[in-house]
């Protein structure tokens, strides 16, 4: 049975990081995001070592959008990875945690002038430039920060169609991200970037999509990016020092998912880069990758308490939990599928097919359709696996649902990393004056 990174203990309960999930639910309440810290650290090392063993001049950059807290930044720092941020807020989180700015890569398809200034001020390692507007903003930023060379990568769309959900494909020409190769924008961007004083072009970036199971798109990306670097070298006498191939490595949500082993993804990428460099007689650049989901996804489990159960004989049994699309938008957004167990009956035989509903006011707020579980009762604890990536980071306050707490579990201990939002938190930004009178303009 798929148990995420957990196991079933002698009480027939799910146990994660040596902690009984039923006890975690009691201590911290539900819904609760539980992150298996050792698993995250093992993934960091696996990616770092697999890449480094094949090509020393390399770097693994954790894509913070998957799951970002200051504690996570600290973990990433300790494991020697760099960090990809996509907004002023993510950058602020990293800086506040004490993450070294030189190891920060700043992404985003609509960075504001203020965000770019913030990046220059903190001295981030690379700004990954996405479009011509951003290059123009950077021209001004570079003028203001004269003396500080702003190192950049250009994000390119290599025209690759990865076989994944439409909303998480990014490498094709018809994308909001990056400079298109097919239409010549990528070359114009190189010319532009090289002409701006104060910017130092270091190389290129691409990201072909997310939750990719095949190796072919990575092979294609390697070939196309190296070929591009070769042409750029001939046309502009520019040597590409580094190429960032983005993230996208697939993980397991259900038993149907069959991702490649990490080593295989990395091997295919690095070998393809080396082969292409040999073909074009070019030095091998620094190789960077940006896994997000693959670092944290399988390490996360969400615990919920079962509430109402509605049986429609001959149709369906709806089992509702105390969370929903506010803590996991992925089923509604992508039709994502999940595996789950009842944490307090983890080893019991599966007896009935039920559908797990969230408590938000939307018919589409369904977490899992048709899952086979042991006989389920109100008060049972449901554990949904593989919720470490794009869950906490995509959580919302829809229906004024407080965001769940996050705990890290490791070696039989659990520590609170993010406390549960309170109702007061939900109102904390409101500017509300109960005794003020509405004065209409007409009466003035
Ligand atoms: C530029 C960039 N890098 C890295 C990632 C991380 O992707 P994943 O979580 O699939 O590894 C993303 C998200 O898809 C991205 O847009
Ligand atoms: N948020 C998405 C993936 C997009 C990744 C960011 N470019 C997911 O949950 O699968």
From TrEMBL:
Single annotated GO MF: diaminopimelate decarboxylase activity
Annotated metabolic or biological route of this protein: Amino-acid biosynthesis; L-lysine biosynthesis via DAP pathway; L-lysine from DL-2,6-diaminopimelate: step 1/1
Coiled-coil annotated spans: none
Record-level GO BP terms: lysine biosynthetic process via diaminopimelate
Alphabetical UniProt keywords: Amino-acid biosynthesis, Decarboxylase, Lyase, Lysine biosynthesis, Pyridoxal phosphate
Top-level EC class as recorded in UniProt: lyase
Domain Orn/DAP/Arg decarboxylase 2 C-terminal: 33-388
Claim: Nucleotidyltransferase is one of the keywords in the record: no
Cleavable signal peptide: none
Family: Belongs to the Orn/Lys/Arg decarboxylase class-II family. LysA subfamily.
NCBIfam families noted in UniProt: lysA
Subunit composition and interactions: Homodimer.
Function: Specifically catalyzes the decarboxylation of meso-diaminopimelate (meso-DAP) to L-lysine.
Protein name according to UniProt: Diaminopimelate decarboxylase
């Amino acid at each position: 049975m798929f148990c995420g990174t957990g196991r079933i203990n002698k009480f027939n309960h799910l146990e994660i990081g040596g902690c009984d999930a039923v006890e975690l639910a009691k201590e911290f309440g539900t819904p609760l995001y539980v992150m298996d810290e050792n698993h995250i650290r093992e993934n960091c090392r696996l990616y770092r070592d697999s890449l480094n063993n094949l090509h020393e001049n390399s770097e693994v950059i954790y894509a913070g959008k998957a799951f970002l807290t200051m504690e996570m930044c600290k973990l990433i720092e300790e494991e020697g990875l760099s960090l990809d941020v996509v907004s002023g807020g993510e950058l602020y989180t990293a800086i506040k945690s004490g993450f070294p700015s030189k190891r920060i890569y700043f992404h985003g398809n609509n960075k504001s002038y203020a965000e770019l200034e913030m990046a220059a001020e903190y001295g981030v390692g690379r700004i990954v430039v996405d479009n011509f507007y951003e290059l123009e903003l950077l021209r001004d930023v570079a003028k203001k920060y004269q003396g500080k060379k702003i190192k950049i990568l250009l994000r390119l769309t290599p025209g690759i169609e990865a076989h994944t959900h439409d909303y998480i494909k990014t490498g094709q020409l018809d994308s909001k991200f990056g400079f298109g190769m097919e239409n010549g924008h990528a070359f114009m961007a190189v010319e532009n970037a090289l002409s701006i004083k104060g910017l130092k072009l270091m190389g290129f970036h691409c990201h072909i999509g997310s939750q990719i199971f095949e190796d072919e798109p990575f092979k294609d990306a390697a070939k196309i990016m190296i070929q591009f670097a070769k042409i750029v070298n001939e046309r502009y006498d520019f040597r590409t020092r580094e190429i960032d191939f983005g993230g996208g490595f697939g993980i397991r949500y259900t038993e149907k998912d069959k991702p490649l082993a990490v080593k295989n993804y990395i091997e295919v990428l690095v070998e393809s880069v080396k082969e292409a460099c040999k073909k074009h007689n070019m030095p091998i650049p620094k190789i960077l990758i940006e896994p997000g989901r693959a670092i944290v996804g399988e390490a996360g489990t969400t615990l919920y308490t079962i509430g109402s159960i509605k049986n429609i004989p001959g149709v369906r049994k709806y089992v509702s939990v105390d969370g929903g699309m506010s803590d996991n938008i992925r089923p509604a957004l992508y039709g994502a599928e999940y595996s789950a167990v009842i944490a307090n009956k983890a080893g019991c035989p599966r007896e009935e097919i039920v559908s797990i509903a969230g408590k938000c006011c939307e018919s589409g707020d369904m977490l899992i359709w048709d899952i086979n579980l042991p006989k389920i009762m109100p008060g049972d604890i449901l554990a949904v696996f593989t919720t470490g990536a794009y869950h906490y980071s995509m959580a919302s306050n829809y229906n004024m649902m407080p965001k769940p707490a996050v705990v890290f579990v490791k070696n039989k201990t659990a520590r609170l990393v993010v406390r549960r939002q309170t109702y007061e938190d939900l109102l904390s930004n409101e500017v509300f004056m109960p005794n003020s009178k509405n004065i209409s303009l007409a009466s003035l």
